[in-house]
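Human: We require from you a protein record containing the residue sequence and its fold in token form, and nothing else.

Assistant:
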Amino acid sequence: MANKKHRKKALKSRQVKQKKKLAIENYCIDDHVLCAYCLTPLHFTKFTLDHFLPKAFFNCSPGHGERRLAHHNNNLVISCELCNEIKSDRQPEEFILTSRKKGILPDQPLQIYSIDKTLLLSIE
């Protein structure tokens, strides 16, 4: 049983590395990427992947395809650790609007793209 858990953890680690590599290939400029929410430049080794629509949004019984959609490339965005932590399991629009009111995020037009370059949200 321990070997099965170890293999599953190793597979997940490889999948995360592949997704981060895709993000770097699509968005890295001068060894930096931008947080999708606060637009902070991040070194290409110091970013997280955030689930744009929270995993809880895809809450369904295990084994169904909908759960896998949470981890699909078009639901992942580049994020700094702080924005990822603050957003938590909230919907993106809710997070952005409340964070702007609190002064956490800049009040400027924002276009959020997934790691596979799909436009997910545009806010003026």
